[in-house]
Design brief:
The protein is built from 19 helices and eight strands. The chain has helices spanning 4-27, 29-61, 85-95, 117-135, 146-149, 152-162, 174-188, 199-205, 209-215, 243-249, 261-275, 283-295, 300-316, 324-344, 348-364, 370-384, 391-403, 429-436, 451-459, and strands at residues 107-111, 139-145, 191-197, 225-232, 252-256, 368-369, 407-413, 419-425. The strands form two sheets. A five-stranded parallel beta sheet has the order 2-3-4-1-5, sandwiched between helices. The protein has a three-stranded antiparallel beta sheet with strand order 6-8-7. The chain is globular.
Length: 460
């Protein structure tokens, strides 16, 4: 019986040899390679599964450094908004009349990204709605992010959904959806405050038609009333609005100034108490997050992102304390993601201008001038079948992209030939490729070779 294991082993080897010979005879040598490859892949798959099990078990079983990372998200609404007491009071005073059944003034809220516009608006309206329930006033609000919604149809669909009205994702005319909203609101017999966040994105990419209709909606309502809060990142939004819309929508205005470094530090310190366990966040890391965000127009969102990502970097490295080194690493990660997101959120014609510069730099390796950009831009428009903008409008888009930090435009003197604008990319071509490659419309234009550049190359 002692020799049984050896006999079993010899028998198994012989069976395997018979299998190999018959497989080679019946299916040929390639089958054997497939057999080996499948076995190798299966073994590798098991190894990957084990690696993931280790990662997940380690994360689940260890305490980590985060107590509640959701506190550092943009959409988290704290019980207190530091350094925005004046804006909260002002907006509260504007909307307070609805508690007694009167329509409040329309209001425009201006300020750069991360200055607290959205947070303050949601904070005030949430408490207004709670107070209205307490005193028995029929008041509600609907918040819509126009950049995320993208079209007038989807903005109206969101408004309908807030009234529990069913609207298909597509298929109805804009007029029909608007009519459903008006009829549903009239039946609801209430005062509705509509908060349109990033309304500038909708106006620039579409038009101000929806705003015009919403500002005139009270003329057709008898049982309900509507007030509008427009939230904009662009202080120049007025330039894009029809005078009739502007007069109705800008009855009141609030401008949010950027936070300074000390204010950002206070905000981060309060959030950090809820987000991290005691002793996790170093003073140096906290101060660096505030300083970096203050240097970029006092953006609280950027400060919160830096702090959260720095915590995640430290957590992945198994560190017990968040240091300045983790903040620096987080800054690099966020910068990459932010540029890709900024490129992806541009309007179609702004993307085409970026792609035009992209092709010129790739072909020539130097700064482009406006005339060259417009020539390539025209060709790209023809490829997509869209109507090109005028050269003057494209020049305005170049200035806007320069302000966003995606292009660098410098006016250069050409002596007796006058002046011209030299434009170069401020982001790498790799990031542009990453942002546009998966775009359903523009993906094929990334590797497109403009004929106008080929002709110039042939002549040269």
């Amino acid at each position: 019986m002692k020799g049984c294991p050896q006999l079993v082993f010899i028998f198994s080897v012989r069976i395997f040899r018979v299998f190999m010979c018959w497989s080679s005879f019946l299916y040929g040598i390639p089958y054997l390679f497939t057999f080996y490859e499948k076995g190798a892949l299966r073994g590798k798959g098991m190894s990957n599964a084990n690696v993931l099990d280790d990662v997940f078990n380690k994360f689940f079983n260890e305490r980590g450094i985060f107590k509640d990372r959701e506190v550092l998200r943009h959409d988290y609404l704290p019980d207190k908004l530091p350094h925005r007491e004046d804006q909260i009071r002002r907006l509260g005073e504007v909307v307070a009349p609805v508690l007694k059944g009167s329509r409040c003034s329309n209001i425009f809220v201006y300020g750069k990204t991360g200055t607290g516009k959205t947070a303050v608006t949601k904070y005030v309206l949430t408490r207004l709605e709670a107070k209205a329930r307490e005193v028995g006033s029929p008041v509600s609000f609907c918040y819509v992010n126009c950049r995320l919604a993208g079209t007038e149809y989807r903005v109206l669909a969101s408004l309908c959904n807030s009234l529990h009205l069913s609207v298909p994702f597509t298929g109805l005319s804009l007029g029909e959806v608007f009519e459903r909203f008006v009829n549903g609101l009239e039946r609801a017999n209430r005062i509705m405050i509509i908060a349109l966040d990033e309304v500038d994105a909708l106006v620039k990419s579409r038009s101000d038609i929806l705003l015009y209709e919403l500002t005139r909606i009270n003329e057709t309502l008898s049982q309900s009333k509507v007030s509008i809060i427009g939230i904009s990142n662009d202080l120049r939004l007025k330039e894009f609005l029809d005078p009739r819309v502007l007069s109705s929508l800008s009855e009141e205005e609030i401008v949010f100034r950027p936070y300074n470094a000390n204010e950002l530090r206070t905000i981060l310190a309060e959030r950090a108490q809820r987000a991290f366990y005691d002793g996790v966040l170093s003073e140096g890391a906290l101060s660096l997050c505030a300083a970096l965000a203050a240097a970029e127009h006092g953006d609280a969102r950027r400060a919160l992102d830096l702090l959260r990502v720095a915590g995640e970097v430290a957590e992945r490295k198994g560190a017990k304390t968040i240091t300045e080194e983790h903040v620096r690493e987080a800054e690099k990660l966020i910068e990459h993601n932010r540029v890709v997101e900024a490129l992806a959120n541009l309007t179609l014609h702004s993307k085409l201008v970026i792609l035009s510069v992209f092709h010129l730099v790739r072909a020539n390796g130097y700064k482009a001038i406006t005339g060259e950009i417009y020539e390539v831009y025209n060709e790209l428009c023809r490829e997509l079948g869209v109507t090109p903008l005028t050269q003057r409008r494209v020049s305005t888009l170049v200035n806007e992209l320069d302000a966003l930090g995606l292009l660098n435009a410098q006016v250069m003197s050409m002596g007796r030939y006058g002046r011209t604008k030299k434009i170069r990319l401020e982001v790498t071509r790799t990031l542009i490729r990453e942002a546009f490659s998966n775009d359903t419309m523009l993906g094929r234009l990334v590797d497109y070779e403009p004929r106008c550049l080929q002709e110039k190359s042939d002549k040269g």
